[in-house]
Amino acid sequence: MLHPRVLVFQGAALMSLLGGCASPPPVAQPPCSNIASCTLECRAGSAEGCFLAGYRFEGGVETAQDLQRAEALYEESCGAGFQAACLGWMRLLSTSEEDTRRAKAAALGRTACDAGYGEGCLRAGLLGADAGPALISRGVAILRRKCGELADDPSCTILANLAFSGALGSADLEVAAAAYVRSCEGGDPHACVRVAELLEERHPDVERVASRSSDEYFHAACGLGLLRACTEHWTRQLETQRGPIGEDVRSRLSALCEIGEADACAVLAKLRFLDGEADRGAYGESRDLYERACTLKNGSACNSFGIMIGAGLGGARNIDLAHEVYRTGCQLGEEEACMNAAWMEAQGLVDAGDPERGLARLQTACARGDGESCYRSGQVLFLAGDKERATTLTERACRLNEADGCTALAVWLLDGQGPETGGARALELATYACQSRSGGGCMLAGKLHESGVGTRIDPQLAKSFFHRACAYRSAEGCEALARRVEGKLAAEFWVVGKTLRGRACREGSASDCVTVGVYLHRGLGGEVAIDTAALFYADGCESGQADGCLYAGQLLATGSGVEVSRDRASVFFRRGCELGNNDACAWEGLSYHLGDGAEKDIERAVEIYERTCAAGSGFGCVGMGNVYEHGDGRPRSGEKAREYYDKACAAGESRYCR
Hints:
Blueprint: H1 4-7, H2 11-18, H3 35-43, H4 47-59, H5 67-79, H6 83-94, H7 99-114, H8 118-126, H9 132-149, H10 155-165, H11 173-185, H12 189-200, H13 204-209, H14 214-223, H15 227-240, H16 243-258, H17 262-275, H18 282-295, H19 299-311, H20 319-331, H21 335-346, H22 355-367, H23 371-383, H24 387-399, H25 403-435, H26 439-451, H27 459-471, H28 475-484, H29 487-506, H30 510-522, H31 530-542, H32 546-558, H33 566-578, H34 582-594, H35 602-614, H36 618-630, H37 638-650
Helix pairs in contact: 3-4, 4-5, 5-6, 6-7, 7-8, 8-9, 9-10, 10-11, 11-12, 12-14, 14-15, 15-16, 15-17, 16-17, 17-18, 18-19, 19-20, 20-21, 21-22, 22-23, 23-24, 24-25, 25-26, 26-27, 27-28, 28-29, 29-30, 30-31, 31-32, 32-33, 33-34, 34-35, 34-36, 35-36, 36-37
């Protein structure tokens, strides 16, 4: 007799338990042995061939999962009187929200129940057929009997699902595991995967009844044709193997990807992305593989594909397309893709986005306990000027162990309350963030110890925080260390900093591209390579980094390590000026002053020099000094020239100091 709790067990929950794991029984001597032969048998009029082909499309066995095609094949086979196919059709119909499809599923279930199929009894009862509780009781009794008689019957898997969930009265993992093991040995690959997953969770009841390791069960499921199990098995092999064996595993994953196994494509994409550290062309291949996996309905791959598109890795940068891909990943159930789409919308980065909707989604996720969403919500509100709500959300992010939230709070305290009032609390927050492996938190804590804000000055303790910042992948931390040590150790830290900046540049950070240019220009972390530095500066400028425009223009204007091109230099200076860099504006003034790279216009040059000098540009002050020293467009005046040269000196142009 069924436990009374089963009679009130929620239909939707139990239906999900019966869902994908309740696979049709493999026959003892099937008329076909693979997807191709089963499809041919079906076309030749074999109801059993249609059923076995449908089973493979439903479960992703030997092919990519295709539920629409599976349903069509099941319907065709069921129409020819093959009862197992009617069960498959019933399974797919019963997951629908449409009343007509659910009613059809209930009718099929009742017919299957009368034919002795326990799954049919259960589904008919759950879908609202008459005498539902009695049908459920009858179904469980049939499942128990058939599982005891036949290991190669889906009854064992269904019974295992019920036992695992507690729907038979109380959760009994040992009974569930024994049924899964029996079903796996009977040829159900999905049951093999379930045993493997339970073993990985280290359930002692499962370990007692399982006869193999988790990887061996994945391998068994792979041998039974379940493609995703093959991916899981070979990925594990790849994690432990190197050299030729590793290449063999990659080739196997590649073959799986070629026939439509989305997870295999995603694994290969990640591997090629990691290869990009040494092989820039690998990013393009990684992007293509993520796109293929996303097309094959892998939500996590869509998220990664969106990241690459948004950063311009492996191809053109396209913010709108990245947002579209994130939305696709979100629809496939990938929560991180949902948050990335909402983050873009909340910042107003996409025309098709809705900032208010994006912010609302982030705040909803924050309320559910997602610390990163709290932090992102706080950032949006802070930039919008709503500091009170921003602080509340960022404090919640910090409490939820989002280290960047703690670091942001520390910075806001220092900016808002000042070092004297907010220093101690800022140091506490930065230290906590550092303990959570935040490079930014460690860097801020080091600065506070070095300057004595919120604590006494302690250079050694500051250095230890910089060291942790570097270890936690903060290039700024590595650079801080390099400036504070000497010799070989300094060189090593510059190398690490350069590597981290280069990686960030490849992942889409334009400011880091400019910094990589500085490394190459000055020979930090390796040899001087000014021509390559110029390319990095230009990339940064193109992505909106004004400093990149200034540095690229200076190299081209002076011919320092590259061929002189004042026309190109003038273009860079103009772009840098438009982006708000006063020094770039001052250098643009020089183009008008000399008539080199732009039409000579001394009055325009003087106007630019005066404006940029007043705004703090030393080079603008130098320009005005030259104007008065040589009488270009203004009366010659040594006194006025010296006045401007003194301003240039104060602004950092040391060659003009007395």
